User: Which sequence fits this backbone?
């Protein structure tokens, strides 16, 4: 059984993951309209993954005797200027998500809820990978600069990355 504090912390994280999914969906749509089909495919997939992260929390809360709350979401940012700007804002967003996950983990320790603490470790590892990937992509974009040929190859690489099946969050 979840304590009220843990239930509230997990429901807060449901909202964070849902907001991430919406944010990346808006980025994907922008990239698609710019003709960056590989980048769009990557971001659509990333948005799907965030939805799975949310779903995993919803199911955990309900299985542990809590009540998952499906939140209303604010309009995501759509004012994008460049592909580098997109990935910088993605990384910024992910570092904030990591802080939120750390807060949930901290609450688990304070409440001595080791089951939820164990469940949250999956999110801790996932954040390390997501932040690292975003940093790698930003480094590549900084190397490419204004080189159109480089951007073409970058976009094609992301198409390849998106071809792998989506992480099921298990
Ligand atoms: Fe599920 Fe990228 O945080």
Assistant:
């Amino acid at each position: 059984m979840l304590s009220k504090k843990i239930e509230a912390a997990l429901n807060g994280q449901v909202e964070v993951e849902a907001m991430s999914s919406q944010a990346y969906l808006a980025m994907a749509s922008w990239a698609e309209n710019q003709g960056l089909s590989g980048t769009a495919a990557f971001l659509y997939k990333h948005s799907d993954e965030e939805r799975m992260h949310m779903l995993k929390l919803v199911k955990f809360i309900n299985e542990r005797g809590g009540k998952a709350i499906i939140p209303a979401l604010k309009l995501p940012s759509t004012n994008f200027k460049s592909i580098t700007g997109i990935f910088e804002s993605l990384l910024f967003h992910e570092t904030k998500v990591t802080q939120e996950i750390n807060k949930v983990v901290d609450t688990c320790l304070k409440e001595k809820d080791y089951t939820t603490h164990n469940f949250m470790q999956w999110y801790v590892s996932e954040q390390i990978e997501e932040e690292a990937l975003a940093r790698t992509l930003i480094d590549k974009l900084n190397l490419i600069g204004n080189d159109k040929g480089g951007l073409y190859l970058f976009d094609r690489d992301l198409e390849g990355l998106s071809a792998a099946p989506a992480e099921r969050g298990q």
